[in-house]
Amino acid sequence: MFDPIVAFFQRVFTAIGRGIGLAVAWLLWPFVALGNWYRQRSWIIKGPIGIILLGLIFFYGYFVWQTQAWTNFNPDYIDRYKLAERKVPAGSPVSGPGATTGQTTTGAAAANQAAVATPPAEVTPEALAAVQLPAGTQCQTSAIVDVTADLIDFNVNENAWISSMLLYKTGFFGLDWDDTPWLDNKASFQRGINQAVRRTSVELVDSLGRVRGTSGINNDLQRARGNIQFDEETWYFGLNPFGPKTPTPSFYRAAMKDMRAFNASLAKCDAVFDGRADNLVEFLDRIANDLGNTSAIIRERSENHNGGWFDTRADDRFWFAYGQLYGYYGILSAAGADFENVVAQRGLTPIWTETIKQLRSALRIQPLIISNGEEAGWIMPTHLATMGFYILRVRSNIVEMRDILAR
Asked: How many domains are there within the chain?
């Protein structure tokens, strides 16, 4: 009775197996033909070709390893800075005259304290004059600068900068790696961190690293901003313009050194960190806008391209947002230390602490495969919508803090 049915399914599965076999044979045919051709050649031809093939295997192996090994990735990286042990805001004296008496020192240290206590118009250029400071005077360095420089170090020294690697630029048989499900997650993550670093470098130059309206732009921070804005994909050679180039990681390393040079000057009270509330308002506003842009990108992808596990660009969006939150987790934690007096005086401590907790919670989302399923779906998860939810929570708290400070 069931024999015809069984025979039918046997024929179906046999046909499917034959079809799969033909497809595999078709895909492997060029390689089989090349292998047969190679075996028939003399060693004069085999030798150079073999060396080239070994070189390709080595370079692709190195490339695959670099994209999969996330060296020193640690969502709790902010713990090593011991921010709770900092006793004074950035730029304030920690040793020497003024450190224990509360009296303002001269020169840049005077501007550091005056900037916190007075509006910009009341800080005169004379306050920034290069007056010789008493020997032994030390000022508190900026945690924001420390974290930002270390994020650059993490991106280009502790790890290879994937976006400018030659094999990443050539793609997968001409197809951009960002358009495939493979080997692009780390590149997107690094670009997300770099977005947070770029935003912070701009604010350090424009407001945090100077007294606006009364002091010049800090040269170290200015160079750092210019270097970190360099494009993310330059290799040692390019076509537009044609010729050799300085690769992207070299510019980013220079930015890292410039930021550390600024902090070294700040430690000697030779630079300014303008820790007023209005600067914090502006900084938070820029971060909120940055996160808002990322949220819009995630929403567009989630609503219009929800192909579940088959959306090959969902992982790019997810890991870019993850990297951005990874960067801002450290930068905002550091800002809480640099602006400790403002946060405490304006009663921001509870909401600031909650924002940092939310950022850390977002970093717990580390799915093996990113799925962009429908929000009302029941088969495939929707990791993009989940990440978008965390971004909006963080952004909402940042906007609330900005509004409190602006009152």
From this structure: 1
Spell out the residues 6+ positions from residue 320 whose beta carbon is closer than 8 angstroms to its own: 188, 189, 191, 192, 195, 294
- Selected residue with higher pLDDT from 228 and 60: 228
Distant-in-sequence, close-in-space partners of 261: CB < 8 Å, separation ≥ 6: 220
* Any domain includes 190: yes
CA–CA distance, 15 with 23 (Å, rounded to integer): 12
* Mean pLDDT score, 401-406: 93
Cβ atoms within 10 Å, residue 25: 10
Write the DSSP symbol of residue 172. Answer: B
Q: Which domain holds residue 252?
A: 143-406
Alpha-carbon distance of 363 to 319, in angstroms, equals 11
Residue 25 falls inside a structural domain? no
Phi (first) and psi of residue 382, to 5 degrees: -125, 80
Rounded to an integer, what distance in angstroms lies between the CA atom of residue 258 and that of residue 221? 6
3-state helix, strand, coil in the chain (%, to 5): 65, 5, 30
Q: Looking at the domain assignment, is residue 74 inside a domain?
A: no
Q: Is pLDDT of 217 > 50?
A: yes
> Which pTM was predicted?
0.84
Q: How sure is the predictor about 377, in pLDDT bands with cuts at 50, 70 and 90?
A: low
**What is the three-class DSSP state of 372?**
strand
- Give the separation between CA 86 and CA 139, rounded to whole angstroms: 12
- Distance, CA of 194 to CA of 151 (rounded, Å): 8
Whether pLDDT at 396 is above 60: yes
Span 192-208, mean pLDDT? 96
- Each residue's pLDDT tens digit, 312-330: 788 999 999 999 999 999 9
Residues 6+ apart with CB under 8 A from 224: 201, 204, 205, 254, 255, 256, 258, 259, 262
**Rounded Cα gap, residues 73 and 216, in angstroms:** 37
Does the residue 131 lie in any domain? no
pLDDT at 212: 58
Q: Give CA–CA dist 237/244, Å, rounded.
A: 4
